[in-house]
Amino acid sequence: MSVMPALPADGRPTLDRTDPEGAVARAAAEVSNWGRWGDDDVLGTVNFLDDGKRREGAALVRRGVSFSLAQRFDMDGPQTGWRRRTNPVHTMLDTGVDAERGSQGFPHGFGGADDVVSMPLQCSTQWDGLGHIFDHGRAWNGRAAGDVVTSEGDRVTGIEHMAPHLAGRGVLLDLGRHLADGELPDGYAITEDDLRACMAAQGPTAQVGRGDIVLVRTGRLARARREGWAGYAGGPSAGLSFTTAGWLHRTEIAAVATDTWGFEVRPNEFDDAFQPLHQVAIPHIGLTVGEMWDLDALAADCAIDGRWDFFLTAAPIPVTGAVGAPVNPVAVK
């Protein structure tokens, strides 16, 4: 049994656009990891990223060059208020002006600056936690959603559990460069065949396997920087096809991240659906998903030196009980 639909004459998988409910149910049954690591598991596929995988990742550092894969956290960000998501608001509590005027109350001329940031935890470069998405009221590992996430936060699979683990071998698959002139068109659904072809084209260092953190570049962020944020957050975009659920499961990757707002293709591949791949990947596969990562500089360097794997450290801020958190991923080659 397979979640991959039959292929039409052009070789691309097709879906019954009128039946997202059935497609989600069939895929969930096929790729479910519920119980794989025990009833008390809080890590999902991050279990694949073990000590050996971290040593493998560290051994990839040769030149010592590093890349931050985070967008900046500021008011000039992608958010437009959808579901009350806003860009970060940065406020100074103490400033150099206060210090100059001697109004801070410190002795012997001591002065300083202090500040605070208010923001949704998923307003920019971030990880989705395992408590972020549910399927018919069920969270990761089959738990009742209401037992997991309450007004106190995610009391079971909070993002803080991921903080010690997300460092290891990263692999960049530059689909924008492989399939187009650097940027995929909006609505392009990246299939398993596309992913495999990209790996083959990029060579041995682009092969993906157990415990890897896979980064998929579409070029959508590059276009947003060039043309403006309109449509970036929630609008049309290339992304992973719903039909890649089986590939995400079989490869046993630890996590996946993209340079898009929503990881999967938008508009979604059904007539009336919202993020169906999320609905399978997070609560059923137990996959940690990253979004809005800045992969452009890293991709340019990989294309020059021909190496597509690297050491990646990407710990989320361990906000207790959070269902997602900002991250400043750093790739080191």
From TrEMBL:
SUPFAM superfamilies: Putative cyclase. GO terms for biological process: L-tryptophan catabolic process to kynurenine. Residues 1-20 are annotated as: Disordered. It comes from the Bacteria. GO terms for molecular function: arylformamidase activity. Gene3D superfamilies: Putative cyclase. InterPro entries: KFase/CYL, KFase_sf. Pfam families: Cyclase. PANTHER family: CYCLASE, PTHR34861. This is Cyclase.
